[in-house]
Amino acid sequence: MASPSHSVRPATLLAQLAGAIDEATGGLVPALQASTTFLRDPDNRYRRGFDYGRDANPLTRLFESVLAALEGGAAARAFASGMAAMTAVLRTLPEGAHVVAPRVMYWGLRKWLQKAAARNRLCVDFVPIDDLDAVRAALRPGVTQLLWVETPANPTWVVADLAALAELAHWAGARFVVDNTVPTPLLTRPIAFGADLVVHSATKYLNGHSDVVAGVVVTAREDEFWAELCRIRHDEGAILGPFEAWLLLRGLRTLAVRLARQCASALQLAAALEGHPALARVLYPGLASHKGHTIAARQMQGGFGGMLSIVVRGGAEAAIAAAAAVRIWKRATSLGGVESLIEHRASIEGEDSPAPPGLLRLSVGLEDWRDLLADLEGALARTG
Questions:
Q1: What is the tens place of the pLDDT at every residue in 278-312?
Q2: Average pLDDT over every residue of 336-340
Q3: Superfamily (CATH) of domain 256-383
Q4: Which of 95, 130, 310, 375 measures 20 to 30 Å from 365, CA to CA?
Protein backbone atom coordinates (compact mmCIF):
# COMPACT_ATOMS: atom_id res chain seq x y z
CA MET A 1 0.00 0.00 0.00
CA ALA A 2 1.26 3.45 -0.90
CA SER A 3 2.25 6.00 1.69
CA PRO A 4 0.06 9.11 2.00
CA SER A 5 1.18 12.02 -0.12
CA HIS A 6 1.22 15.41 1.56
CA SER A 7 1.25 17.17 -1.82
CA VAL A 8 -2.37 16.46 -2.76
CA ARG A 9 -5.45 18.14 -1.33
CA PRO A 10 -7.52 16.36 1.35
CA ALA A 11 -10.40 15.35 -0.95
CA THR A 12 -7.96 13.64 -3.32
CA LEU A 13 -6.11 11.94 -0.48
CA LEU A 14 -9.42 10.60 0.87
CA ALA A 15 -10.98 9.50 -2.41
CA GLN A 16 -7.92 7.43 -3.33
CA LEU A 17 -6.90 6.47 0.22
CA ALA A 18 -3.44 7.82 -0.49
CA GLY A 19 -3.14 5.63 -3.59
CA ALA A 20 -3.65 2.36 -1.74
CA ILE A 21 -3.73 -0.66 -4.07
CA ASP A 22 -4.08 -4.31 -3.08
CA GLU A 23 -0.64 -5.64 -3.96
CA ALA A 24 -1.80 -9.23 -4.48
CA THR A 25 -4.56 -8.50 -7.01
CA GLY A 26 -4.24 -4.87 -8.07
CA GLY A 27 -7.66 -4.21 -6.53
CA LEU A 28 -8.55 -0.54 -6.01
CA VAL A 29 -10.38 -1.44 -2.80
CA PRO A 30 -8.04 -2.53 0.01
CA ALA A 31 -8.49 -6.20 0.85
CA LEU A 32 -9.88 -7.26 4.22
CA GLN A 33 -7.01 -8.98 6.02
CA ALA A 34 -8.45 -10.78 9.05
CA SER A 35 -5.38 -12.69 10.17
CA THR A 36 -4.44 -12.32 13.83
CA THR A 37 -0.90 -13.57 13.34
CA PHE A 38 1.73 -13.16 10.62
CA LEU A 39 4.57 -15.32 9.29
CA ARG A 40 8.08 -14.72 10.53
CA ASP A 41 10.99 -14.59 8.11
CA PRO A 42 13.49 -17.51 8.28
CA ASP A 43 15.78 -15.39 10.45
CA ASN A 44 12.90 -14.73 12.90
CA ARG A 45 12.30 -11.13 11.81
CA TYR A 46 9.12 -9.45 10.51
CA ARG A 47 10.22 -7.58 7.40
CA ARG A 48 6.63 -7.13 6.21
CA GLY A 49 5.98 -5.01 9.30
CA PHE A 50 3.29 -7.13 10.98
CA ASP A 51 3.64 -9.66 13.76
CA TYR A 52 0.41 -9.91 15.76
CA GLY A 53 -3.09 -8.48 15.35
CA ARG A 54 -3.22 -6.79 18.74
CA ASP A 55 -0.59 -4.31 17.63
CA ALA A 56 -1.31 -3.71 13.95
CA ASN A 57 -3.25 -4.77 10.91
CA PRO A 58 -2.70 -3.58 7.31
CA LEU A 59 -6.07 -1.80 7.30
CA THR A 60 -5.70 -0.09 10.67
CA ARG A 61 -2.23 1.03 9.63
CA LEU A 62 -3.59 2.48 6.36
CA PHE A 63 -6.28 4.37 8.27
CA GLU A 64 -3.67 5.70 10.69
CA SER A 65 -1.40 6.91 7.88
CA VAL A 66 -4.26 8.70 6.13
CA LEU A 67 -5.41 10.43 9.35
CA ALA A 68 -1.88 11.51 10.22
CA ALA A 69 -1.55 13.05 6.76
CA LEU A 70 -4.94 14.79 6.99
CA GLU A 71 -4.15 16.29 10.40
CA GLY A 72 -0.58 17.21 9.51
CA GLY A 73 0.71 14.98 12.28
CA ALA A 74 3.71 12.70 12.66
CA ALA A 75 1.78 9.53 13.47
CA ALA A 76 -1.64 8.19 14.45
CA ARG A 77 -3.06 5.22 16.36
CA ALA A 78 -6.54 3.76 15.87
CA PHE A 79 -8.57 2.52 18.84
CA ALA A 80 -11.67 0.38 19.33
CA SER A 81 -13.78 3.45 20.23
CA GLY A 82 -13.56 7.19 20.67
CA MET A 83 -13.62 6.77 24.45
CA ALA A 84 -10.77 4.24 24.27
CA ALA A 85 -8.71 6.77 22.30
CA MET A 86 -9.49 9.69 24.62
CA THR A 87 -8.96 7.84 27.86
CA ALA A 88 -5.69 6.38 26.56
CA VAL A 89 -4.37 9.94 26.32
CA LEU A 90 -5.45 10.65 29.90
CA ARG A 91 -4.17 7.32 31.25
CA THR A 92 -0.76 8.16 29.85
CA LEU A 93 -0.54 10.92 32.48
CA PRO A 94 1.06 10.14 35.86
CA GLU A 95 -1.09 9.50 38.92
CA GLY A 96 -2.54 12.73 40.36
CA ALA A 97 -1.70 14.83 37.30
CA HIS A 98 -3.45 18.18 36.98
CA VAL A 99 -5.76 18.54 33.97
CA VAL A 100 -7.75 21.55 32.79
CA ALA A 101 -10.84 20.66 30.76
CA PRO A 102 -13.86 22.50 29.35
CA ARG A 103 -17.18 22.73 31.16
CA VAL A 104 -18.86 22.04 27.83
CA MET A 105 -17.53 18.86 26.26
CA TYR A 106 -18.55 15.34 25.29
CA TRP A 107 -20.51 14.23 28.34
CA GLY A 108 -19.09 10.68 28.44
CA LEU A 109 -15.54 11.98 28.79
CA ARG A 110 -16.63 14.66 31.29
CA LYS A 111 -18.11 11.93 33.51
CA TRP A 112 -14.95 9.84 33.13
CA LEU A 113 -12.86 12.82 34.26
CA GLN A 114 -15.17 13.47 37.20
CA LYS A 115 -14.83 9.85 38.33
CA ALA A 116 -11.04 9.97 37.88
CA ALA A 117 -10.93 13.11 40.02
CA ALA A 118 -13.15 11.52 42.68
CA ARG A 119 -10.72 8.59 42.93
CA ASN A 120 -7.73 10.97 43.04
CA ARG A 121 -6.48 9.43 39.81
CA LEU A 122 -6.38 12.94 38.31
CA CYS A 123 -6.86 16.48 39.58
CA VAL A 124 -9.29 18.17 37.20
CA ASP A 125 -10.44 21.77 36.88
CA PHE A 126 -13.38 22.46 34.55
CA VAL A 127 -13.43 25.94 33.01
CA PRO A 128 -15.36 27.93 30.38
CA ILE A 129 -12.98 27.24 27.52
CA ASP A 130 -13.94 30.41 25.62
CA ASP A 131 -12.79 32.55 28.58
CA LEU A 132 -9.02 32.90 28.22
CA ASP A 133 -8.67 34.61 31.60
CA ALA A 134 -10.44 31.69 33.30
CA VAL A 135 -8.19 29.21 31.51
CA ARG A 136 -5.06 31.14 32.47
CA ALA A 137 -6.20 31.27 36.12
CA ALA A 138 -6.82 27.50 36.17
CA LEU A 139 -3.44 26.57 34.67
CA ARG A 140 -0.61 25.94 37.15
CA PRO A 141 2.74 26.58 35.47
CA GLY A 142 5.06 23.64 35.98
CA VAL A 143 2.24 21.55 37.47
CA THR A 144 -0.57 21.28 34.90
CA GLN A 145 0.12 18.35 32.60
CA LEU A 146 -2.65 18.71 30.06
CA LEU A 147 -5.17 21.21 28.66
CA TRP A 148 -8.08 19.47 26.92
CA VAL A 149 -10.20 21.38 24.39
CA GLU A 150 -13.21 20.56 22.25
CA THR A 151 -14.37 23.09 19.66
CA PRO A 152 -17.10 23.65 18.67
CA ALA A 153 -18.09 22.03 21.97
CA ASN A 154 -20.97 19.57 22.19
CA PRO A 155 -23.87 20.34 22.69
CA THR A 156 -23.94 24.16 22.91
CA TRP A 157 -21.19 24.65 20.29
CA VAL A 158 -18.98 26.95 22.30
CA VAL A 159 -15.99 28.01 20.20
CA ALA A 160 -12.46 27.98 21.62
CA ASP A 161 -9.53 30.01 20.29
CA LEU A 162 -7.04 27.24 19.49
CA ALA A 163 -3.98 29.39 18.85
CA ALA A 164 -4.46 31.37 22.06
CA LEU A 165 -5.09 28.24 24.12
CA ALA A 166 -2.06 26.48 22.66
CA GLU A 167 0.06 29.43 23.73
CA LEU A 168 -1.38 29.31 27.26
CA ALA A 169 -0.91 25.55 27.56
CA HIS A 170 2.72 25.70 26.49
CA TRP A 171 3.34 28.71 28.74
CA ALA A 172 2.24 26.48 31.63
CA GLY A 173 4.32 23.54 30.39
CA ALA A 174 1.22 21.48 29.59
CA ARG A 175 0.29 19.37 26.58
CA PHE A 176 -2.48 20.76 24.43
CA VAL A 177 -5.03 18.17 23.29
CA VAL A 178 -7.94 18.93 20.95
CA ASP A 179 -11.03 16.81 20.33
CA ASN A 180 -11.56 17.39 16.62
CA THR A 181 -14.50 15.00 16.17
CA VAL A 182 -17.06 17.54 14.97
CA PRO A 183 -14.98 19.74 12.62
CA THR A 184 -12.80 16.90 11.28
CA PRO A 185 -9.44 17.81 9.71
CA LEU A 186 -11.28 19.05 6.61
CA LEU A 187 -12.54 22.08 8.57
CA THR A 188 -9.94 22.49 11.32
CA ARG A 189 -6.38 21.20 11.69
CA PRO A 190 -5.53 21.79 15.38
CA ILE A 191 -1.85 20.86 15.00
CA ALA A 192 -1.43 23.89 12.73
CA PHE A 193 -2.66 26.01 15.67
CA GLY A 194 -0.24 24.43 18.15
CA ALA A 195 -1.98 21.26 19.35
CA ASP A 196 0.26 18.45 20.58
CA LEU A 197 -2.37 15.73 20.17
CA VAL A 198 -5.66 15.48 18.27
CA VAL A 199 -8.36 12.95 19.10
CA HIS A 200 -11.46 11.80 17.21
CA SER A 201 -14.42 9.61 17.79
CA ALA A 202 -14.11 8.07 14.32
CA THR A 203 -17.58 6.63 14.88
CA LYS A 204 -18.96 9.98 13.79
CA TYR A 205 -18.00 11.96 10.66
CA LEU A 206 -14.90 10.01 9.70
CA ASN A 207 -16.96 6.87 9.21
CA GLY A 208 -20.21 8.70 8.48
CA HIS A 209 -22.48 5.66 8.07
CA SER A 210 -23.40 4.81 11.68
CA ASP A 211 -22.01 1.29 11.34
CA VAL A 212 -18.60 1.47 13.06
CA VAL A 213 -17.41 2.30 16.56
CA ALA A 214 -13.82 3.58 16.43
CA GLY A 215 -11.39 6.21 17.69
CA VAL A 216 -8.03 7.70 16.73
CA VAL A 217 -5.27 9.80 18.26
CA VAL A 218 -2.88 11.84 16.10
CA THR A 219 0.37 13.27 17.47
CA ALA A 220 2.35 16.28 16.31
CA ARG A 221 5.60 14.46 17.19
CA GLU A 222 6.74 11.02 18.23
CA ASP A 223 8.11 11.65 21.72
CA GLU A 224 8.18 9.71 25.00
CA PHE A 225 4.55 10.54 25.75
CA TRP A 226 3.53 9.10 22.38
CA ALA A 227 5.59 5.98 22.96
CA GLU A 228 3.83 5.43 26.29
CA LEU A 229 0.40 5.92 24.68
CA CYS A 230 1.29 3.33 22.04
CA ARG A 231 2.41 0.94 24.76
CA ILE A 232 -0.92 1.36 26.56
CA ARG A 233 -2.82 0.51 23.40
CA HIS A 234 -0.66 -2.54 22.75
CA ASP A 235 -0.71 -3.86 26.31
CA GLU A 236 -4.43 -3.27 26.89
CA GLY A 237 -5.53 -4.46 23.47
CA ALA A 238 -7.76 -1.53 22.53
CA ILE A 239 -7.00 -1.85 18.82
CA LEU A 240 -9.56 -1.47 16.05
CA GLY A 241 -10.59 -4.75 14.43
CA PRO A 242 -9.83 -5.36 10.73
CA PHE A 243 -13.48 -5.46 9.58
CA GLU A 244 -14.22 -2.21 11.43
CA ALA A 245 -11.11 -0.67 9.86
CA TRP A 246 -12.30 -1.79 6.41
CA LEU A 247 -15.72 -0.16 6.95
CA LEU A 248 -14.06 2.95 8.34
CA LEU A 249 -11.84 3.32 5.29
CA ARG A 250 -14.87 2.87 3.03
CA GLY A 251 -16.68 5.68 4.83
CA LEU A 252 -13.62 7.90 4.93
CA ARG A 253 -13.42 8.02 1.13
CA THR A 254 -16.63 10.09 0.93
CA LEU A 255 -15.95 12.38 3.89
CA ALA A 256 -15.26 15.46 1.74
CA VAL A 257 -18.54 15.32 -0.18
CA ARG A 258 -20.60 14.30 2.85
CA LEU A 259 -19.24 17.03 5.08
CA ALA A 260 -19.65 19.75 2.45
CA ARG A 261 -23.34 18.85 2.07
CA GLN A 262 -23.86 18.65 5.84
CA CYS A 263 -22.19 22.02 6.46
CA ALA A 264 -24.26 23.72 3.75
CA SER A 265 -27.51 22.22 5.04
CA ALA A 266 -26.74 23.07 8.67
CA LEU A 267 -26.11 26.71 7.75
CA GLN A 268 -29.37 26.86 5.77
CA LEU A 269 -31.31 25.35 8.67
CA ALA A 270 -29.72 27.61 11.29
CA ALA A 271 -30.45 30.73 9.25
CA ALA A 272 -34.04 29.65 8.57
CA LEU A 273 -34.74 28.75 12.20
CA GLU A 274 -33.15 31.83 13.77
CA GLY A 275 -35.95 34.02 15.04
CA HIS A 276 -38.57 31.25 14.91
CA PRO A 277 -41.27 32.14 17.49
CA ALA A 278 -41.15 28.70 19.11
CA LEU A 279 -37.40 28.94 19.71
CA ALA A 280 -35.49 30.92 22.32
CA ARG A 281 -32.13 30.45 20.55
CA VAL A 282 -30.39 28.77 17.66
CA LEU A 283 -26.81 27.74 18.46
CA TYR A 284 -24.56 27.42 15.41
CA PRO A 285 -21.06 28.91 14.90
CA GLY A 286 -21.92 29.83 11.31
CA LEU A 287 -24.44 32.44 12.43
CA ALA A 288 -23.11 35.98 12.83
CA SER A 289 -25.09 36.17 16.10
CA HIS A 290 -23.04 33.32 17.62
CA LYS A 291 -20.60 34.52 20.29
CA GLY A 292 -17.73 32.56 18.75
CA HIS A 293 -18.50 33.26 15.11
CA THR A 294 -15.44 35.45 14.45
CA ILE A 295 -13.03 32.89 15.91
CA ALA A 296 -14.77 30.02 14.13
CA ALA A 297 -14.52 31.87 10.82
CA ARG A 298 -10.79 32.29 11.38
CA GLN A 299 -9.93 28.69 12.28
CA MET A 300 -12.57 26.69 10.39
CA GLN A 301 -12.06 26.47 6.64
CA GLY A 302 -14.81 25.33 4.27
CA GLY A 303 -17.75 25.41 6.66
CA PHE A 304 -18.91 25.53 10.26
CA GLY A 305 -19.84 21.88 10.71
CA GLY A 306 -22.98 19.81 10.45
CA MET A 307 -24.11 20.21 14.08
CA LEU A 308 -26.43 22.79 15.61
CA SER A 309 -28.76 23.04 18.58
CA ILE A 310 -32.11 24.73 19.04
CA VAL A 311 -33.52 25.82 22.39
CA VAL A 312 -37.29 25.38 22.49
CA ARG A 313 -39.40 27.83 24.46
CA GLY A 314 -41.25 26.00 27.20
CA GLY A 315 -38.28 24.00 28.44
CA ALA A 316 -37.77 20.26 28.59
CA GLU A 317 -41.41 19.24 28.21
CA ALA A 318 -41.88 21.29 25.05
CA ALA A 319 -38.55 20.14 23.59
CA ILE A 320 -39.23 16.45 24.20
CA ALA A 321 -42.70 16.84 22.69
CA ALA A 322 -41.23 18.47 19.59
CA ALA A 323 -38.68 15.66 19.21
CA ALA A 324 -41.50 13.14 19.49
CA ALA A 325 -43.45 14.87 16.71
CA VAL A 326 -40.81 14.79 13.94
CA ARG A 327 -41.24 12.42 11.01
CA ILE A 328 -37.93 12.62 9.11
CA TRP A 329 -35.43 13.34 11.88
CA LYS A 330 -34.51 10.23 13.89
CA ARG A 331 -34.53 10.31 17.70
CA ALA A 332 -31.16 8.72 18.38
CA THR A 333 -27.78 9.30 19.99
CA SER A 334 -24.63 9.99 17.95
CA LEU A 335 -23.85 12.35 15.10
CA GLY A 336 -22.13 12.67 11.75
CA GLY A 337 -24.07 9.98 9.88
CA VAL A 338 -25.96 10.22 6.60
CA GLU A 339 -29.27 10.33 8.49
CA SER A 340 -30.35 13.39 10.47
CA LEU A 341 -30.65 12.88 14.23
CA ILE A 342 -32.44 14.83 16.95
CA GLU A 343 -31.93 14.41 20.69
CA HIS A 344 -32.88 16.08 23.97
CA ARG A 345 -29.47 16.32 25.58
CA ALA A 346 -30.26 17.36 29.18
CA SER A 347 -32.27 14.20 29.81
CA ILE A 348 -29.41 12.10 28.40
CA GLU A 349 -26.58 13.82 30.23
CA GLY A 350 -28.20 14.21 33.65
CA GLU A 351 -28.25 16.91 36.30
CA ASP A 352 -24.82 18.39 35.57
CA SER A 353 -25.48 18.83 31.85
CA PRO A 354 -24.52 22.26 30.45
CA ALA A 355 -27.43 21.95 28.02
CA PRO A 356 -30.43 24.21 28.73
CA PRO A 357 -33.60 22.23 29.53
CA GLY A 358 -35.14 23.08 26.17
CA LEU A 359 -32.11 22.22 24.03
CA LEU A 360 -32.43 19.78 21.15
CA ARG A 361 -29.20 18.73 19.46
CA LEU A 362 -29.41 18.31 15.70
CA SER A 363 -27.01 16.27 13.58
CA VAL A 364 -27.68 17.19 9.97
CA GLY A 365 -27.48 14.33 7.49
CA LEU A 366 -27.70 14.15 3.71
CA GLU A 367 -31.43 14.69 3.28
CA ASP A 368 -32.67 17.82 1.50
CA TRP A 369 -32.47 20.62 4.05
CA ARG A 370 -35.88 21.94 3.00
CA ASP A 371 -37.51 18.66 4.02
CA LEU A 372 -35.66 18.75 7.33
CA LEU A 373 -36.80 22.32 7.94
CA ALA A 374 -40.44 21.55 7.08
CA ASP A 375 -40.34 18.56 9.44
CA LEU A 376 -39.00 20.66 12.34
CA GLU A 377 -41.41 23.50 11.72
CA GLY A 378 -44.31 21.05 11.57
CA ALA A 379 -43.25 19.42 14.84
CA LEU A 380 -42.93 22.80 16.56
CA ALA A 381 -46.35 23.87 15.24
CA ARG A 382 -48.03 20.65 16.38
CA THR A 383 -46.62 20.90 19.91
CA GLY A 384 -46.46 24.66 20.39
A1: 999 999 999 999 999 999 999 999 999 999 999 99
A2: 98
A3: Aspartate Aminotransferase, domain 1 (3.90.1150.10)
A4: 130
Query: What is the per-residue pLDDT for 53?
Result: 79
d(CA 291, CA 283) in angstroms, rounded, equals: 9
Question: Does the active-site annotation cover 370?
Answer: no
What ranges make up the beta strands (E) of 33-166? Answer: 75-79, 97-102, 122-127, 144-150
Q: Which of 130, 179, 196, 375 is catalytic?
A: 179
CB atoms within 10 A of CB 3: 12
Distance CA 265, CA 262 (A): 5
Output the pLDDT for position 165.
98
Report the alpha-carbon distance of residue 52 to residue 249 in Å, rounded.
21
52 is an active site residue = no
3-state class (DSSP) for residue 171: helix
Confidence check: pLDDT of 196 > 80: yes
* Fold observed for domain 10-252: Aspartate Aminotransferase; domain 2 (3.40.640)
Nearest-5° Cα angle at 371, 366 to 376:
105
| Residue range(s) occupied by CATH 3.40.640.10 in the chain | 10-252
The catalytically annotated residue of 204, 233, 258, 345 is 204
pTM over 0.85, yes/no: yes
| 8 Å CB contact between 188 and 158 | no
Catalytic residue among 51, 54, 125, 131: 54
Residue 31 confidence (pLDDT): 86
Residue 115 annotated to the active site: no
